[in-house]
Amino acid sequence: MPPRKLPKSKPPEELATIDVAVIETESTNQASVFEVETSQTAGEIEPATKKPLRKTARRGRYSTVERPMTSADLFPSAAIHPMATNRVIWESCNILSQGEDLDWKYADDGSPHYKSLVAKGRGYLSFFVTKDLFAKHPSVLEGEAALALIEEFDIRAACMHLIYAAHATQLERPWEQSFTLSDTQLERYLGLDQNKKLNKQQKLELMLEWAKQPCHLLVYVSYPDQGKVKGFTVSRTHLWEMTEPMLHFQECIQDTDGQCVGEKQWVGFTLRMRCGYWAEYFLNRERLQDKSGYYEYGFLSKGLLNGIMSTWHHHAGAARLMMWLLFKTRVNRHSPLSVETLMKVAFGIEDLQTARTNSKERKRIVRLWLTSLKTLIEKGWKVEPDAATYPSEYWIETPTAQAISQIPDDPEAAIAFWSQDAALPEGDRITDFKKRVRGSFEQLLKGRIWIQPPAEIEEKLDEIADSRRYPQRERNQTSQANLDRDQSPQDSSKSLSRRSSRVNADFSSVGQKSESLSKVQTLITSGEELRNLRISKGWTQKALATKLERSVSWVKMVEKGERNIQPEDQEKLKEYVLEPAI
C-alpha cells in the first residue's frame, strides 16, 4: 500500500495557541482588539499573523476568538446519529472502558498488546499503546510505562471514542479527510454543559485529556477471506490521528503603561481528527460495493452518552455494560446473552474468578450485578431473564417479593389472602420461597438474559434489518415516491386511490385468513398466524405486548419466527386474541 502524507507536527509540549489582546485607553475610552490567527493546512501550521477586528468602542463584552469552522453537529435536531460499529471500533472501545481488566499479553520486546481473534480464529486484531500522539511513525510503548498508561484509560475517553466514530460516518473517505471538533460541541455531547460543579478550566482540562486517550492506541489488522471479501492486512497504524490541539486564550487587559492587569484565561480548544489507515477497509463505501472491504454502522444516541457519563462513577459495571451492549445488540439482538459473559464485561475476569471461591466477594458481585441490571432498566434498556435458565432467586424482583407486595392492608382481606395461600400445594406457597443454596452462583453464571437497546436505537436497527430483508420493497417504495413527485395532482390522486384499494384488499385478505384460521384451531402455532390475527383486530405490536404482559421486542421476535410461544403465553393468547371480545 502506498504510504500517506501526514501533516508535519510540532512536539506535543508546544501546543498551537490563539490569543486575543485587548488594549484599553482611559483617556479616549476606545479599545483596539487584535486577533492572533493560526491557520493549519495539510502541510504545516503557518506562523501567526495579527489583524484588527474593531477600532471603535462599544458597550458589553468584546468578541474573543474567531475559531476554525467545525464539523456538523451530531444531534442538531434528533437525539440519534449513525456511528461506525466495525470490529476495530468495538475492540478499541473495550480497551478504553475495561483497561487492565482485559487479557493483555507481552511480546518478545516487552511491549504489552491486546489480541482479539476474528472469523473463528482465522484472523486477529492486535492493539498496542504509544506516547507519540503526533508522530508520523509512532513507537510502541514498553514495560511499566505501557502498563501505567493502560491503567489511566477512562470510560469517559471511550465516550469520546464513540463521538469520533460517529463523526467519521459524515465523511466519504475518513482515512484521508479530517473532522474538526470544538470544546463546546464536546461539552454538549457529554452533558457537561449541565454540570455546575466544575468550572470552565476544569472541564477543558478533563475533555482534552479524554480526547487524547483514544489516540494512544495503535492497531494491526490481519483479516482472512470472508465470503466475497478477500483477506487483507493493515500495518500498525494510529487508531485516531490527531494534529496538535489549538488552544484558545483570552489575554489579560493592559494598562496605559503596557502592564498586564489580571491573568490570561484559557477559554477553549479545537481538535482536528482523522481515522487511521484501517478505515480504508472498514469505513469505505467504495470497497463495500466491489466486495473488497466493509462498512458497518449502528447508531449513537445522546441519551446513551449522558447515561454513561452520569453512571460511571457510582455504577461502573452498568456503564461498561451499556458501552459493550451498544455494539453487541447491533450484531445480534435476537439471542439471549450469557450471565458469565456479561459479568466479565462489567467486573473483569479476575474479580469473577475470585467470586467463585470467596463467599464475601461473591455476595459483593451479586449485589453489584443486581444494581447494574436496575441501572440498565432505568436508562431505557429492556432486560428480561430467560425463564428456562436464569434462577429466579437472583433476579431484581423475586416471585416471593412480588407476591408479598400483593398482600392487602385490610386485616380481614389479609386473613383471606393467607388462607388461600395455605391451601396451595407445597412449593407454590409464599412461605415456600426458594433460598440461595450452595452451587446456585454457578447456576447463575450459566443463566441467560434477553437484552434490547433503548427504544430510539432499536427503532433504527429495525429499519436496517427491514431494508436488508426486503431490499426490493425499499427500491419499489423509493421509485414510487419519485413517480408520485413527478406526477400531476390528478394522476397522483388516481395512483393514491389505486394503492388504497390494494392496501384494503391486503388487509381484508389477512382478515379472512385469520378468521378462517381461528375457526379451525384454538392455538397459535407460528409467528405468521399471530401477526395475521393482530392485524385483523387492528392492534399494534405495543398493544398486543401490553395485553400479554410481554415486551414489544418479544412480540417482534415471535412474529419473525425467532422465538417460540410458551404454554403460559398460549393461555393469554386464548383469552385476549382467539376468543372474541364481548
Summarize the structure.
This protein is α+β, with helices and mostly antiparallel strands and about 575 residues long.
Protein traits:
globular; five-stranded mixed beta sheet; disordered N terminus; alpha+beta; about 575 residues; 434 Repressor (Amino-terminal Domain)
Q: What's the layout of helices and strands?
A:
Blueprint: E1 17-18, E2 20-25, E3 30-37, E4 49-54, E5 80-84, H1 87-98, E6 104-106, E7 112-118, E8 123-129, H2 143-151, H3 155-168, E9 179-182, H4 183-190, H5 200-212, E10 217-223, E11 232-238, E12 240-242, E13 246-250, E14 253-254, E15 260-261, E16 265-275, H6 279-282, H7 285-289, E17 297-301, H8 302-311, H9 316-331, E18 337-338, H10 339-347, H11 349-357, H12 359-378, E19 382-385, H13 399-404, H14 411-422, H15 440-446, E20 448-452, H16 455-469, H17 471-486, H18 489-520, H19 527-536, H20 541-548, H21 552-559, H22 567-578
Parallel strand pairs: 1-13, 2-14
Antiparallel strand pairs: 2-3, 3-4, 5-17, 6-7, 7-8, 8-10, 9-16, 10-11, 12-16, 13-16, 14-15, 18-20, 19-20
Helix pairs in contact: 1-3, 1-9, 3-5, 8-9, 9-10, 9-12, 10-11, 11-12, 18-19, 20-21
